[in-house]
């Protein structure tokens, strides 16, 4: 079970990122809990300056754009 | 070089659509077609070329560069990077906190954030194509000056006193731990640069095209439907009160530089003095209520009020100075 956080202030790109990850997780049959994190203090704690950013199991894997399908697939598959 | 766009508009509006060049409708439509096509073509070409050049520049590298810099040079560089570094305005809060927690003074961070919406490649490009290089140079100088002077002022009054407490603590920690360097200076291959530039062009164009249409549409309406000479007759002398009035009108209106520059062109060609125009447009672009609501997360009301008053004052002053100087020049 992967714990995935999408960091961002709630702009459309962040919503799209979260949707993309959820969609691909379902398609790949990976159990994942995707949550959106909008609290600026939490975003700061991860050292993120460009949103949307993606954190998987407490590790920052991406920052600054909507990730590509290939990126997301890479993170989800073991 | 830009004549081709005039001819294209001639052909589309007067020939194909059959409108007369003597009617207001024909003139307004001609203006609209010529400017939109010209701007779209220039945007795609120039965004791509500029993105190729700055592919390796991002906010992380700017932060590492600014951290630990001497204050005097810091304001200038903060404003300079604000002009050239791309970032989405939805990232301004994370950027503020990222800079702050690296120990960068609030003034330098704000020099960066104030200059950023005012000057960017799209704005410069539009100014160059619509209003010429002299006006563009003036605009860039004034935009940088607002960022630098604003940053200097905020540090002079010790604005960090009025940050929200968690941001103030982050600043203290950052100052003690000294500069960090986390972003690796990676070199990019030409293929990676092309990939970045292509994505960037699609991204920026996708974001600004509607602003161009709105801006040029408003400009065209002004061009075609405000009676010739009305603006010049009523506001052309640059009466002192017109500048604060323009700023007061501009602040609640929100637009980005892309939407407002075609309106600027129209106002200037209709005889509105340059200072009044600058004051109106800069206040529309730099100060917006949504932005201020966002900043509330990291600043106390008091600092927000100071920032707001500072911008009002700065734009009014700019307007007066230019109205005073330009008729003389």
From TrEMBL, chain A:
Signal sequence, renumbered to the chain: none
Ranges for domain Thioredoxin-like fold: 3-77
Record key words, sorted: Disulfide bond, Redox-active center
SUPFAM superfamilies named in the record: Thioredoxin-like (SSF52833)
One Pfam family cited in the UniProt record for this chain: Thioredoxin_3
Record field: transmembrane: none
This protein's name: Small redox-active disulfide protein 2
Keyword Disulfide bond among UniProt keywords: yes
Source organism superkingdom: Bacteria
SS bond partners: 11-14
Catalytic site positions: 11, 14
InterPro entries the record matches: Thioredoxin-like_fold, Thioredoxin-like_sf, THIRX-like_proc
UniProtKB/TrEMBL annotation, chain B:
InterPro entries assigned: DUF318, UPF0718_permease
UniProt keyword annotation of Cytoplasm present: no
Membrane topology: Multi-pass membrane protein
Transmembrane segments: 39-57, 77-99, 111-131, 137-157, 238-255, 267-289, 301-326
A GO cellular component entry from the record: plasma membrane
Lineage top rank: taxon: Bacteria
Alphabetized UniProt keyword annotations: Cell membrane, Membrane, Transmembrane, Transmembrane helix
Subcellular location: Cell membrane
A Pfam family recorded for this sequence: ArsP_1
Similarity comment text for this entry: Belongs to the UPF0718 family.
Protein's name according to its UniProt entry: Permease
Organism from which the protein derives: Amphritea atlantica
């Amino acid at each position: 079970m992967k714990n995935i956080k999408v960091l961002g202030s709630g702009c459309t790109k962040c919503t799209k990122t979260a949707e993309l990850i959820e969609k691909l997780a379902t398609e790949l049959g990976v159990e994942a809990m995707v949550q959106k994190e909008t609290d600026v203090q939490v975003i700061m704690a991860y050292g993120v300056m460009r949103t949307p950013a993606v954190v998987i199991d407490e590790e920052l894997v991406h920052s600054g754009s909507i990730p590509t399908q290939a990126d997301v697939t890479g993170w989800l598959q073991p | 070089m830009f004549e081709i766009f005039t001819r294209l508009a001639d052909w589309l509006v007067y020939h194909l659509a059959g409108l007369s060049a003597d009617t207001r409708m024909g003139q307004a439509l001609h203006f609209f077609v010529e400017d939109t096509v010209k701007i779209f073509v220039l945007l795609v070409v120039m965004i791509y070329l500029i993105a190729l050049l700055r592919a390796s520049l991002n906010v992380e590298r700017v932060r590492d560069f600014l951290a630990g810099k001497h204050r005097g040079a810091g304001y200038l560089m903060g404003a300079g990077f604000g002009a050239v570094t791309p970032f989405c305005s939805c990232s301004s809060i994370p950027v503020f906190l990222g800079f702050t927690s690296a120990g960068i003074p609030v003034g330098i961070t704000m020099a960066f954030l104030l200059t950023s919406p005012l000057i960017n490649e799209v704005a410069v490009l539009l100014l160059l194509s619509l209003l010429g290089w002299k006006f563009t140079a003036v605009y860039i100088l004034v935009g940088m000056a607002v960022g630098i002077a604003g940053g200097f002022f905020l540090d002079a009054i010790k604005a960090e006193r009025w940050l929200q407490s968690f941001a103030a603590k982050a600043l203290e920690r950052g100052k003690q731990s000294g500069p960090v360097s986390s972003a690796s200076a990676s070199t990019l291959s030409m293929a990676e640069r092309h990939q970045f530039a292509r994505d960037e062009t699609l991204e920026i164009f996708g974001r600004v095209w509607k602003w161009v249409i709105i801006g040029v549409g408003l400009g065209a309406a002004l061009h075609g439907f405000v009676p010739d000479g009305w603006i010049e007759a009523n506001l052309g002398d640059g009466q002192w009160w017109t500048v604060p009035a323009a700023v007061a009108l501009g602040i609640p209106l929100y637009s980005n530089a892309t939407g407002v520059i075609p309106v600027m062109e129209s106002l200037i060609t209709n005889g509105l003095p340059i200072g009044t125009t600058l004051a109106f447009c800069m206040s529309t672009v730099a100060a917006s209520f949504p932005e201020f609501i966002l900043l509330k997360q990291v600043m106390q009301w008091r600092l927000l009020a100071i920032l707001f008053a500072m911008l009002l004052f700065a734009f009014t002053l700019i307007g007066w100075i230019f109205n005073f100087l330009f008729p003389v020049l």
